[in-house]
Amino acid sequence: MVELKTPGEIEAMRAAGAVVGEALATVRAHAGIGVSLQDLDDVAAEVLRAAGATSPFLGYHPDWAPSPFPGVVCASVGDAVVHGIPGGYRLRDGDLVSIDCGAVLDGWCGDAAVSFTVGTADREALALIAATEEALARGIAAAVPGNRLGDIGAAIGGYVRSCGYGMLADHGGHGIGRRMHEDPHVPNEGRAGRGMRLRPGLVLAVEPMLHAGGGDAYRHDPDGWTLRTADGSRAAHCEHTVAITEDGPVVLTSR
Fold first, then answer.
1. Strand, coil or helix: what is 210?
2. What residues does the Peptidase M24 domain cover (predicted)?
């Protein structure tokens, strides 16, 4: 069931989103050569703690997962697209890193992700990240009252395919509110003018996930969580929580 949020509830979600934005900015500032993914998880956890927020990721255990998620961020490096478990891996020069983070504050959720490089960045990694950020921007721009879910997917997918990149199959964005994952599913590819009509009060997590190699296939790590590109190419993931309002889309996960 799709739930529309009141203006007051959207403001409460903006507060949760600001915690997410702060956590992601702080993690990015701390990321560097030799820093472990666990270190970055600890940094995000402290931001949430200081804000009086909790993590919707920590202990999350969907039916398909073999165990509860053990971190407050998903930390995905290189060919890992999403759901990377933060552990002992230490960042290396040139690594492409995607960090996904959520927060729950006063019962409301925020969810966002950023991708960046560590140390010396190569041109291909920067181009992939830039394309992912642009795809996100185009998806957000399409999230206006009167449009349909297919318009968001068409805006994202049309751009990504024109760049020659692939997208993580079977995955997309989602509704968000008091729960991290709510209806509706938000596709990263679709036909303009198709799907559910967008109405003020709808809050969505828009999140393109790009594969540098051009394919969409993925494989699971033995940990049951991490998804990697099937061809071993690098991936990038960017996300914002976005409210649809009478005045257009409003990003709720800015710092």
1. strand
2. 11-246
pTM of this prediction?
0.97
Binding site feature residues for substrate: 83, 181
pLDDT tens for 117-161 read 999 999 999 999 999 999 999 999 999 999 999 999 999 999 999
Binding-site annotation, residues for a divalent metal cation: 100, 111, 174, 207, 239
C-alpha closest to that of 167 among 125, 209, 113: 209
Q: What does the alpha-carbon distance between residue 181 and residue 168 come to, in Å, rounded to a whole number?
A: 18
Alpha helices in 78-144 (DSSP H): 123-141
Strand partners, 249: 244
**∠ CA 53-84-220, rounded to 5°:** 140
Which amino acid is it at 83?
A: H
Residue matched to tokens 């005045």:
247
Amino acid letter, 221:
D
The residues facing 203 across adjacent strands are: 243
